Please model this.
Amino acid sequence: MKKIFYTLGIVFTIAIIMTACNNKPGTAVEGTKGLLYADTVGLAEFQDWKAHNERADAIEAYKKTEKATATTRKRSSSQSGSMVSSSANEAKVAKKKGWSKAAKGATIGAGSGAVLGAVINKRNRALGAVIGGVVGGGVGFGIGRSMDKKDGR
Model:
């Protein structure tokens, strides 16, 4: 009887993990016909505040480069016969996109593989968990990587 409850608990845990990692942010669980969650923690306000600050920082950096360029132009016009080269272009920082699907797949696969490996190998649960985690992580990474390639990431 204990084994049945233990197995059901593991299956239930895996089901929760799999439904929690859906690719539709902002939607409720699939059975609720797509209801949206309310913004209970002020995420929208934070994102607006962050965007406003980033715009202000960009404008300030642009003004600084314009001042530096104007100063360089004055120097180059006062010096005859010499060439001064300056660039006002700065490298753009790539915006982070969060976890890739390959990383998510590897994490979910390793976790569920470890649990299943421990359940399947009853004599040495630690060894079963390690082997299951490695195999599950590899399979999850492969599936996630193929999804990343389809998305062009």
Observations:
- Residues 27-32 have pLDDT under 50 and may be disordered.
- The chain has four helices and no strands.
